[in-house]
Design brief:
Elements: H1 3-12, E1 15-17, H2 24-33, E2 40-44, E3 53-59, E4 62-68, E5 74-78, E6 93-95, E7 98-100, E8 107-109, E9 114-116, H3 120-124, E10 142-146, E11 149-153, H4 161-165, H5 168-176, E12 183-193, H6 197-206, H7 211-214, H8 216-220, H9 229-232, E13 236-240, E14 243-249, H10 255-261, H11 266-275, H12 278-285, E15 289-296, E16 300-305, E17 321-331, E18 334-344, H13 349-362, H14 368-384, E19 393-395, E20 419-422, H15 427-441
Antiparallel strand pairs: 1-19, 2-11, 3-4, 3-6, 4-5, 7-8, 8-9, 10-11, 12-18, 13-14, 13-20, 14-15, 15-16, 16-17, 17-18
Helix pairs in contact: 1-15, 6-15, 10-12
Bound molecules: FE2/S2 (inorganic) cluster (FES) and fe (ii) ion.
Amino acid sequence: MTDLDRLLADVRRGMIPAHVYNDDELFRLERDRVFGRSWMFVAHESEVPHPGDYVVRRVLDDSFIVARDEGGTVRAMFNMCLHRGMQVCRAELGNASHFRCPYHGWTYRNDGRLTGLPFHREAYGGEDGFRRHEQTLLPAPALDSYRGMIFINLDPNAPPLRDYLGDFAFYLDFYTNQSSAGIELVGPQRWRVKANWKIGAENFAGDSYHTPQTHTSVVEIGLFREPKAAKRKEGALYWAQRGGGTTYKLPPGTFEERLRYVGYPDEMIERMRGSWSSAQQRVIGENGFMISAASLFPNLSFVHNWPKVANGSDSDTVLPFISIRQWQPISADETEVLSWFAVDAAAPAEFKKLSYKAYLMCFGSTGMFEQDDVENWVSITSTAAGSMARRLLLNNRMGLLHDDKPVTPPLAHWVGPGTAYVGYGEYNQRAMLALWADCLAQPVAEAARTELGAP
Ligand code: FES
Ligand SMILES: [Fe+2]
């Protein structure tokens, strides 16, 4: 058994060698075997609504221009000039019909086609020397979208995105499909934390357990009524193939009453009725759970919370918000966080404004939850680099007995796909790391190469 085999076997039995949270060698493997074959979120269609709109996004070190061309098609193009490799687009977002490389001036249309090549005749002998007309910026090997969320995959043979999402798509709809108008995004705010990317992804996937401890002050100052210790454990944790998340138990009531309880106005609830399937509605109306944080493997997370927004500690007025966030790895010990505010595009203007405020109060670079969380994650990462961390296997088995039977049985009447448990457990962190282990166990095939204008 190689060291890697042993490590993956440990992870699969729910024991985590602590150094996985800061290990350069594993990070090199993750780069190819996790991020080289997973569907990576790069943008939402609402970020590039008009022809010429673009954003520049990365998958680790690979920069892509995600642009809507003049015909309305959204493409993701590798942001490297075909000439000598300069980054073609240096801005983070904008609207452009063409992109001109700053180095020698090669110019590309917003669909990637090379259109301008200074001194083509003098320098190359025209088309005889270099066929300008056949050249385009390298497209992302695969591109696909779900509910307006655009993903790319560095593996051209990746399964379709919908297959990859699997049953998790059912839960994705709670965040992205509150009406037929879909969502619109604000952001992203971006910042770097000295923490391994897996820690945030695992936390959002299923760590209800940290909320009462890490975020005590948020409850104490009256910002949030939910994460009291006794309350959080009543929530369900669900896992469905490629992702899973946490929920809060709602007080008794109908679908409408429960959505009102978390602060949705009636006109939005009406539209949710129209766009969610009956099973999706029954998770709220029958099971009585409201989705909160979630992660899609490997590094995309979601959160839905409803903090108090009115002044006065006795006020019970809450307002929900949604955030989409990505844990973009920089290295084994550093992550760039991208944090978007998301809201139903059909929501009333006043709701959008207040929901954005609620988001900023809780998440984003100044958010109170964010500040609490990151302190833990940075500390784990720095300690995981030492030699002692190589001697410690962390227990990731919460919710399991020694014989692998669950402490509490799965919820028998859970309406959604996948498996759900009420109470505290590390079911989802184990599921995330099991997918991670599956990726790491499989080497990637060598990628095809593109030779530019070779004779
Ligand atoms: S590197 Fe882009 S034009 Fe030369
Ligand atoms: Fe947290």
